[in-house]
Automatic annotation (TrEMBL):
CDD domains the UniProt entry points to: ABC_Carb_Solutes_like
Source organism: Vogesella indigofera (Pseudomonas indigofera)
Name of protein: ABC-type Fe3+/spermidine/putrescine transport system ATPase subunit
Superkingdom of origin: Bacteria
Taxon lineage: Bacteria, Pseudomonadati, Pseudomonadota, Betaproteobacteria, Neisseriales
InterPro entries in the record: AAA+_ATPase, ABC_SmlMolc_Importer, ABC_transporter-like_ATP-bd, ABC_transporter-like_CS, ABC_transpr_FbpC, P-loop_NTPase
Length: 313
């Protein structure tokens, strides 16, 4: 288990971490989610031993590692920059860490080939870095991170440089591999879709503090504040409540609202109407669109809200 106890960190008087505590169980993936500049990467640096906090402790596997140097913390990190050695082939990149720790070259190479096969790159060990696609390079980086059998796995925005299709493919692949590992994993990201797809729990960070921790379903069902609701993707947020998509009611018997914007999409369309107290944003599915005339800008749409379905905080 990874346990963070009351961590505090400041740069030039600015608090980056402010009494942060969190537990990540063995085999659990927790996503640290928040906008840029909120302290996510600084927290990873503290856990990795690259930064020393002003207060607090980092415990791993039942022991305090707060004062250990990075090389003694038995962890692996994976960044958005794959940081592969361009002059080495795929297997040599994976084997590099083993050889640095004294594993004979032939044995390290054999283990590297097995690690590459485990991430879907069997037979690609001799490929040069420039011969690998972005997704393949990401898998080489994953194999390199996991080959040392770490006690903790840290991921810092690992998919941010990839296109949407490849990102989803790699997230699906990584989720399966993480579920088979009995080590705690901490993912840092500003992408809520990435966090919800990969993590067992999400921990939302604002101004160096965790303001909500829960499963993706719990956070979406009960956001702790208007800020959290907006950050996790709700379009219709007021000071004390959010209108979830399921709360909207369409069709006969509902008030007519002026349509201000129509944005066609593959799965339907996004519509902005003049609602009560401000604009409402609706995402209409193809099935919903089939039951009524297609919305037109300047036209009207019959839509109301089930007040009992509002999310309040």
């Amino acid at each position: 288990m990874l346990e963070l106890r009351d961590l505090a960190l400041a740069f030039a008087g600015r608090r980056v971490l402010d009494g942060l505590s969190l537990q990540v169980a063995a085999g659990e993936t927790v996503a640290l989610l928040g906008p840029s500049g909120e302290g996510k990467s600084s927290l990873l640096a503290v856990i990795a031993g690259l930064l020393r906090p002003q207060r607090g402790q980092v415990w791993l596997g039942g022991r305090d590692i707060s004062r250990l140097p990075p090389e003694q913390r038995q962890l692996a990190m994976m960044f958005q920059d794959h940081a592969l050695f361009p002059h080495l082939d795929a297997a040599a990149n994976v084997a590099f860490g083993l050889q640095e720790r004294g594993v004979p070259r032939a044995a390290a190479r054999q283990r590297a080939e097995a690690a590459l096969a485990a991430v879907g790159l069997a037979g690609r060990g001799a490929a040069a870095c420039h011969q690998l696609s972005g997704g393949e390079q990401q898998r080489v980086a994953l194999a390199r991170a996991l080959i040392g059998e770490p006690a903790l796995f840290l991921l810092d925005e690992p998919f941010s440089s990839l296109d949407t299709h490849l990102k989803q493919q790699l997230i699906d692949d990584l989720r399966q591999r993480l579920s088979a590992m009995a080590v705690p994993t901490l993912l840092v990201t500003h992408d809520r879709h990435e966090a919800f797809a990969l993590a067992d729990r999400v921990a939302i960070l604002q101004h160096g503090r965790l303001i909500q921790v829960g499963t993706p379903g719990e956070v979406l069902a009960r956001p702790a504040s208007a800020w959290v609701a907006r950050f996790v993707g709700f379009d219709n947020v007021a000071a004390d409540h959010a209108i979830p998509p399921a709360a909207f009611r369409l069709g006969d018997g509902q008030p007519l609202r002026t349509v201000k914007l129509v944005e066609p999409r593959v799965e339907g369309c996004r519509v902005v109407v003049a609602g009560d107290g401000g604009d409402w944003v609706l995402s209409l599915s193809a099935r919903e669109l089939a039951t009524q005339p297609y919305p037109q800008r300047g036209g009207h749409l019959a839509v109301g809200v089930d007040r009992a379905a509002l999310l309040r905080w």
